[in-house]
Amino acid sequence: MAIVKMKRLRLIALNADREKLLGRLQALGCLEVADAPPGLQGDPAWAGLTRPSGEALAMARGRRDAGVQALELLKRYGGVKVGGLTPRPEVTGERFFDERAYRETETVVDNICAAQWNLSAMEAEAAKLQSQRAALTPWLGLEAPLDTPSDQWVTALLGTVPLATDLETVREELGELCTLTAVGEDRSFRYLFLLCHKSVEGQAQEVLQGCSFSRTVFRGLSGTAAENDARLERELEDNARKRERTGQLIADFADHGEDVKLYVDRVDQEVRREEAKQRLAQTGETFLLTGWFPAEEEERLAKLLESYPCAWEAEEPGEEEYPQVPVKLKNNWFTRPLSMVTEMYSLPAYGTVDPNPLMAPFFILFYGIMLADMGYGLLMVLVSLVVQKKFRPKGPTMRHMVPLLGLCGVSTFIMGALTGSFFGDFIPQIARLIDPDTTLTALPALFTPLEDTLMILVGSMALGLVQIVTGMLVSFIEKLKRGQVVDAVCEEVTWWVVFLGAGLMAAGVTHIVLILGAVMVVAGPLLTGKGFGRITGVFGSLYNHITGYFGDILSYSRLMALMLAGNVIAQVFNTLGAIAGNVVVFLLISMVGNALNFGLNLLGCYVHDLRLQCLEYFGKFYQDGGRAFHPLELDTKYCDIIS
Length: 643
Fold this sequence. Notes:
This protein is α+β, with helices and mostly antiparallel strands and 643 residues long. Helices cover 58% and strands 12% of the residues. Strands 2, 3, 9, 10 and 11 form a five-stranded antiparallel beta sheet that branches.
């Protein structure tokens, strides 16, 4: 349970072996391919090195994008389940890397994408037709053709004026030689058809200009608006039938859904391999590979490399190189789920302490204290077991979150048993509804949030003190390893003495230890400071540490607060349900209320627990800034490869 020790690999091999070697390294899954070391960049001796062409990477990414698009289309039209908690099939390596099946599925993907391209074109055409129909709608009342021509005697115009225009006044101004017909209107405009004699065309134009007339011209349309609307409607119906047939064509490929998923996973491995290839440096005949691998994997890596004509070396990084070294955590089943919390905050720096084993007991215990209900705990455990068994979640979050949910559920159940809570006071309440004379008024409990609130508060802060002292102990050991003995004594030992002295004085044993601690608090800055800084250092140390430790310990009172809040809310809903005196009504109200309470506290307890670890605990010993280890490996999304 620690940060895995890493080694750097430098490898020179033949270009002829590059593809096969990268494939075997990917199957091995223990090497992170890195860019050339900084020492080689800009060195004239390496000026002849070049990067491999990115053409193959671009093509692989294009195939992957096509596969993902095909999957989305099969999901939309064929009902193929994609993503989420969809169960993943187990496939053999032989099937996964079957070249013939891969090429056949590639043809299926191309056909699906081609159908989608046609579908997109038809959807664009449908949008165009709908836009044309919308433009014709105000003119449907016009009986004259839209392309009514002007001749040597009469001028015909179509156009609009603002809705507020008084048409009677306009007609009077136009005179008897003009006919103005209102065809339709909407919220903004009136739609007009004007026929006027050529002799008064100029006068009519002036009148129309005065009322903000805007001419409308329908290019390429002949016949009436109604006739054109009917034609467009027929074209839209034909377009809809074509789109339906194309959608059905895509849906007919639904039987290939699993094959397309395998295709996407397979292409994704090619993309990873091509991305790793871009980090190599090469000459005409050879290539240079640098990377990082766990020291414990050196034997397997050496066995693979010995089968190729290549030169390689592995070496441990120096301390000055630690910021460049990727971090991999090695934990067991109990501490591994806490990687979700660690990675959300920041990975530890290489060469420091893995926080997971130090955090796991506290995080899981604190979560159980805050939620503290047997019913909620059972639900969490059951959900965790079912999801892990049936769906085998993957991904950086789900693979840790689901097991963590189960561990916190066990803790929640245990604390619920200690407080006698099962969906609050669900069992006593329903027992009274069934038998008013029942003697079951409460479940057996060691303590209860409502009656032992002060004890729980003191216990919460005591647990907080234990966690804080644990963090200080880790910091003390790490400082001793680095030879910082004075800092370790001044920062940690001094305040341990103060804590011990305060406890002994509160118990009425002695106050001498507290006085000794106070002397050490003052002596530390005087010994380590310089000049006037020694004096200010004393006051700074007193203020920062006293307020800091007091605030940190007080922060753990949230354990009691959340336990009390969750328990009270559950009891309130149970009481509301019992008022009606009907078991069915009680079950309905209690289930809804407890579901809301459970959902709220499931997230709330996680957030508050996370705060206690990241702010109150990590600050005592944790050094962040690590970079995650990302090896070249077979990392699939839609299937699991088995041997």
